[in-house]
Amino acid sequence: MTFELKSIHPDPSQAHKMPYAPAVHIVGACDLMFISGATASALYHDHPHRDEEHVHPHAIEDQTKNAMEAIKSILDEVGASWKDVVKVTKYLTDIRDGDGMHRAMRPYFGDWRPASTMVCINQLSSPGARVELDMIVALPKKG
């Protein structure tokens, strides 16, 4: 069985303005993978947290890159690509960081724009973390 991901744009002439698709339609059968939130911290770290494992760069672009690299390691593990991501949830501690975060994400996604939600929150799980990303991925059915 195969599937196709289709970006849904009610007004395709305006799509170039958006860093995400208003919706993504999965056509056909697939498996879904839900990626837990990733921050600028290492993917694997102690719990309860130890502060020395959570020293983050200040720039939102650098923090976003760290989170995207952690997610990339998960995608690589299952043979998926950024074009398989159907939904991203972006948590920011300062909504004004949205443009910088999107600039840092663009090289990973290229011309693909998954569906997206961006939320401003009070704080994240470690001091100094400014961005957390979680994703839903569509994968070909196995077997």
Structure notes:
With about 140 residues, the chain is of the alpha+beta class. The chain has a single domain, classed as RutC-like (60s Ribosomal Protein L30, Chain: A, 2-Layer Sandwich). Helices cover about 20% and strands about 30% of the residues. The chain has helices at about 60-80, 100-110; strands at about 5-10, 25-30, 30-40, 85-90, 115-120, 130-140. The strands form 2 sheets. The chain has a 4-stranded mixed β-sheet with strand order 3-6-4-5. Strands 1-2 form a two-stranded antiparallel ribbon. Helix 2 (about 100-110) links the parallel strand 4 (about 85-90) and strand 5. Helix 1 (about 60-80) packs parallel to helix 2. The longest helix is centred in the middle third of the chain and has 19 residues, at about 60-80. The termini are close together. About 25% of the residues are buried. The model has no long low-confidence stretch (mean pLDDT about 90). Belongs to the RutC family. Pfam families: Ribonuc_L-PSP. One of its GO terms (molecular function) is deaminase activity. It comes from Rhodoplanes elegans.
